[in-house]
Each structure stands twice: as C-alpha cells, then as structure tokens.
Amino acid sequence: MLTLRHSRNWFVIIGTVFVLLALTACTTGKGEVVAEINGEVITKEEFYQELLKQGGKQLLDRMIDQKLIQQAAKEKGVTATEQQVRERMDEMKEQFGGDASFQMYLAQYGITEDMLKQDVRNQLLIEGLLKPEIKISEEEIKAYFEENKDMFGEPEQVKARHILVETEAQAKEIRAKLDQGESFEELAKQYSTDEASKANGGDLGYFKRGDMVPEFEEVAFSLKPGETSQPVKSQFGYHIIRVEDHKQPVPAKYEEKKEEIRQQILQQKIAEKMEPWLNELRNKAKVTNYLK
C-alpha cells in the first residue's frame, strides 16, 4: 500500500513529467512566439530548449524506465488490471482524506487522474515483478509485531470539549456560568476563540496522548467523564475542558494484525529492491539517447 508521503512525492514527479510532455508535444514552429516583453519575444523553440536544460534528462530517464518496466512485465506475463488500478487510486484518495483533497493535490501539480493512473499501473507492474522474489517468514512478522505493538494497538483516548478564551478573567467568568447550569456547548459557541471547534460546541472528538499541548493533555487525561476543569493556561490562551468519554488502551492481537504486517513488510522490501532492480534493467538494456 502506498504511503501518503510516497503519493505526494509522486505528484511532484508526475506533474513535472506531464507538463514537459505536453509542452514538448506543442513545439512545432521554431518562430512561434510564446511571450513578448517590451517588444522582445521568447519563441517556442527557445522555451523548449530551456525546458530540456531544466528537466529534459529527468523526463527522458523516467520515460526510459517506464518502457523497461513495461517490457519486463510483458516478458514475465505480469499485468495490472483496471480493478487493481482503481483500488490503488481509492487507497490514495483515502490517504489524502477523501476525494476533494485528492483532487486539490492533482490540480496543484497540473495532472489528471488518467495521467496518475498510468504511473500507478507501472508501480503495480513493479510490485508484480518483484513480489515472487520476496520471502517473508513468520519470525519476521512476529518480530515486527513485537517491535511495533503500540502502532497496532488502540491507544488510550479521551473525548472532550473545550472553550478557549484569551484571559484568565474571561475563563473564570465562563466557569462560573457553567457552575450556574448554563450549557457548555452554547457557551463554547458564544465565547470560544477556537474557530475549528466553536461551531460544534467546542467538540474536539477523540484524541490520544501527544495530540494536544502538554498542559491541556495533562488535565484532560486526569478528568473523569462528565467532569469539567478549572481554567487551564496554554500557549493559546485559557481553556475550560469537559471530558465526555475516556477509552483505555486496547493491546493489539497478533493474529488480527498478521496480514496487515505482512503487507507492510512486503512494501518495505519492494521499495528496497526497486532501485537496484531498475539499475539492473538499465545495465542490461540497449538504450540509445538522441536527446541533444
């Protein structure tokens, strides 16, 4: 499974590739003007030559790699189906927090889903070619599980609301209103300066240790469900915290996480093997570079 970091790196690379390809395809007339500055012109040919200097080698190297991957896959009978491509694209969308965020990143780098699909297809071909060479033992999986138990288990979590104000005097005044029975949610909507949560009555949802600043966290995790804190000072101002739920940590179970771990190890090993494998393909191939 692709990580978010890898996905974003792909966008930078793919965006460069497809912009260069599109512009290269348009370079037909040497005298065609692409810009004019105070009577002086920049021709399409001049623009093209500058593009080659800045990104031409990277673009050509990547296109050569793509051809080598496709040729190796054809030789081995490895394919990437439309369903596999769709599933991988869906994983990437999920990592970006949904389709809207995903489309925003695509637009940012000037590429379309169809462009990205081709790169995803090549990645799937690489995985299909390298996977048969990779062996993962039960001992490896168990060792990975033991080393990363915290990552696979459910951490201790608190669900809370807060009201954030600038001064201690304001916080004490609001705390007094709460003591008189006024609604926490309504007071948050009226007084809180936290724009991200005030509309929802100060709701912060569930969070684990390390998600909040230390002063806030210490108090939130010390309260019982239904309890409300006195004013708590942090770098953001003064908080009044109300805890609504407190979940204890749930240890991970090996059998439930075994397959997930296997896939993580597999992806790590594929990433480690990919560049040496590509270098081997490059060294064996007959490649003539006519780019000047």
From TrEMBL:
- Using the UniProt record, name the top-level EC class of this enzyme in a single word: isomerase
Give any GO molecular function from the UniProt entry: peptidyl-prolyl cis-trans isomerase activity
Cellular component GO terms held in the UniProt record: plasma membrane
Summary of the function given for this chain in its UniProt record: Plays a major role in protein secretion by helping the post-translocational extracellular folding of several secreted proteins.
Could you tell me the keywords of this UniProt record? Answer: Cell membrane, Isomerase, Lipoprotein, Membrane, Palmitate, Rotamase, Signal
Q: Name one GO biological process term.
A: protein folding
Q: Tell me where it resides.
A: Cell membrane
Family that this chain belongs to: Belongs to the PrsA family.
Name the chemical reaction catalysed here: [protein]-peptidylproline (omega=180) = [protein]-peptidylproline (omega=0)
**What are its E.C. numbers?**
5.2.1.8
Transmembrane regions: none
Leader sequence segment: none
**Start and end of every PpiC domain?**
155-245
Where the protein is mainly located, per its record?
membrane
Q: Which Gene3D superfamilies match?
A: 3.10.50.40, Porin chaperone SurA, peptide-binding domain
Q: How does it sit in the membrane?
A: Lipid-anchor
Q: What is this protein called?
A: Foldase protein PrsA
Which species does the entry assign this protein to? Answer: Bacillus thermozeamaize
